[in-house]
Amino acid sequence: SIPSDVTAVNADLDAQNLLDRVYVGDTAGNLYRFDIDDALAANWTGGKIAQLSDAYTLPDTAPNRKILFPPTLVKQRGMEAGALVAFDAVYVGSGDREHPLKTDGTADRMFMIKDKVGVDKSYTLNATLSDLVDITHLATAEAYTPLNTASTKGWYYSLPGAGEKVVSMPTVLNNVLRFSTYAPLENINSCVPSGRGQLYGMDAYSGTPLDGVKYKMLATNPHIFAGFFSQGYIGHAVPIVFGDKLYVLQVTESGQILPGAAEMGTIAKVYWYREAER
Q1: Is it true that the peptide bond before 184 is cis, omega within 30 degrees of 0?
Q2: DSSP label at residue 262
Q3: Left if phi > 0, otherwise alpha if psi is -120 to 50, otherwise beta: which for 274?
Q4: Beta strands 154-158 and 133-134, pairing class
Q5: Count of Cβ atoms closer than 10 Å to residue 143 Cβ
Q6: Whole-angstrom Cα distance, residue 84 to residue 267?
Q7: In this predicted model, what pLDDT tens digit does every residue of 31-84 receive, in sequence order?
Q8: Which terminal residue of the chain, N or C, has fewer Cβ atoms less than 10 Å from its own Cβ?
Q9: DSSP character for 105?
């Protein structure tokens, strides 16, 4: 089944600003792309581009990861065989939010899939876990070279907590990937019951840690924002324009806001248009 909203985008970035592509995942850990860039719906096409559960064969074994939130699409570029290659990076997380206390052996993950639509028009990408690089323990972007090959189709980051699961749509601003998780066995402090919502931040291209001092990351895991925890779920990031600055706000269910609001820098309008009344 497909319980989440879809992510519909103007992927070709043309001036018409018409939606031309859709991404969505299902409860078996599959990721799909639908191309809707034709005026006739009969000419729309779609197919599976990634299988992110461990290998399974029904009815003997079942898929062990669920995608319950929409993916995020970002334009990226990377080196492959000495050449700069453009691709669409699709970010999606797995986790069974409907069973927050479940702590079985399944490691839920955040994924980045390299979707090269120009060469994958027939939905042959078919990325599986063996095609992705495990960046969970890579400390610096300099150590991150496996992605820079044509055969590598992306990466994954395994959540460290037992039963920890992604519980929000990922967001990317200024090449920083943010997503929230819920870890049922973690504690905010010793005075409250187990269960902690926490916010992750990492380099959107490589998945490697951010500057720990600049972004105030957790010393024991530099992928996690320090001091920003919740007993419940943390929602997805919301970009806010205030004056000539762009901020990204992250709020807990109790109203706590990520300190500093992660200022993104100066912004300016690059165009405008007027639509006549009819």
Answers
A1: no
A2: G
A3: beta
A4: parallel
A5: 12
A6: 27
A7: 999 999 888 999 999 999 999 999 988 889 999 999 999 999 999 988 887 788
A8: C
A9: S
Distance CA 113, CA 120 (A): 13
8 A C-beta contact, residue 114 and residue 153 = yes
Hey, how many other C-beta atoms are within 10 angstroms of the C-beta on 95?
Answer: 27
Tokens of 152: 């590598």
23: β partners: 7, 33
Contact 207, 112 (CB under 8 A): yes
Q: Beta strand pairing status for 45-51 and 72-80?
A: unpaired
> In this structure, what DSSP letter does residue 276 have?
-
| Mean of per-residue pLDDT scores for the chain | 87
**Sign of the alpha-carbon torsion through 102, 237, 52, 22:** positive
CA distances to 137, 147, 180, 209 from 224, rounded to whole Å, are: 13, 23, 9, 9
Answer whether 162's CB lies under 8 Å from 141's CB.
no
For 128, 145, 162, 255, 265, the CA distances from 56, given in Å and listed in that order, are 12, 30, 22, 41, 46
Residue 75 CA to residue 11 CA, distance in Å, equals 9
Please give the C-alpha separations between residue 184 and each of 72, 232, 236, 242, 257, in angstroms, as whole numbers. 25, 10, 19, 36, 22
pTM of the model: 0.90
pLDDT in tens, 123-159: 777 899 999 999 998 876 555 566 777 788 999 999 9
